[in-house]
Amino acid sequence: MSVTGVRFQLHDTPEALAEVVAARVLEAARRAIAARGRFVLVAAGGRTPLQVYARLARARLDGSRWLVLHGDERCLPVDDPARNSHAIAAAWLDPVALPPNNHLPIPAELGAETAARRYAELIAPLLPFDLVLLGMGEDGHTASLFPGHPMPEDEALTMAVHHAPKPPADRVSLTPRALAAGRETLVLVTGAGKREALARWRDGAGLPVARVAEAAGAEVLVDAAAWG
Ligand code: 6PG
Questions:
Q1: Higher-scoring residue by pLDDT: 94, 25
Q2: Which of 2, 34, 79, 93 is deepest in the core (most CB within 10 A)?
Q3: How far apart are the first and last CA of the chain?
């Protein structure tokens, strides 16, 4: 099942999908570390990937060779539980004791513009990433790239986001160019709430998730509830 440059993969349940994604992350890490001595992962925010992170927390992995980046972040205080960095640390990174310098949160507490500038400098030497994980919102957004929002056409790797329709309004996101700069890209879509956006995507709507996934040649893992 495909739309230009994108392959859809159907899974019965969110749990089955999370199991497959966790195995793919570990396999991509094994290959990257064997080839380049490190594994650079761009982690997805939101709730959908939390089941994947919980499985990775139970996996035996040598975190010293992993670098965990974020595709986007919410401009909230550093210890706010609604931050993607906080949710991922709680679900996975703290339990596996990933060396602190190997988790590279977006400094969104500094404000969107400053954080975007700082993070662009940090990630530029790490391209191409080994694996990019993405989610999709009910309006077809991915990371913090929202429908109707201006998208940078230049070489920018990060962008400040304001007036986001999903709270909080101020965010930082990697750009479509940066999110499509992975050796491998997996998009995770679960739940009936995503059905309409997924149908629009498959009908060719130019949603942000479609733009990034098609540029990346992504695989889209979908559960039965979202597929409909
Ligand atoms: C965020 C995310 C966002 C998320 C989608 C899906 O910070 O909110 O990065 O892009 O991936 O909104 O969210 P759920 O997985 O919670 O449905």
A1: 25
A2: 93
A3: 14
Ligand 1 center to residue 40 CA distance, Å?
A: 21
pLDDT digits (tens, 9 = 90+) for 15-49: 999 999 999 999 999 999 999 999 999 999 999 99
- Cβ–ligand 1 distance for 44 under 6 Å, the answer yes
Mutate to test the pocket of ligand 1, among 75, 80, 136 (most ligand atoms within 8 A of CB): 136
Per-residue pLDDT reduced to its tens digit, 144-164: 999 999 888 788 999 999 999
The protein residue whose alpha carbon is closest to atom 13 in ligand 1 is 46
Pairing of strands 158-161, 171-174: antiparallel
The 3-state secondary structure of 104-166 reads: CCCCHHHCHHHHHHHHHHHHHHHCCECEEEECCCCCCCECCECCCCCCCCCCCCEEEECCCCC
Report which ligand 1 atom has the smallest distance to the Cα of 135. 11
> What's the whole-model pTM score?
0.97
* Residue indicated by tokens 């990371």: 143
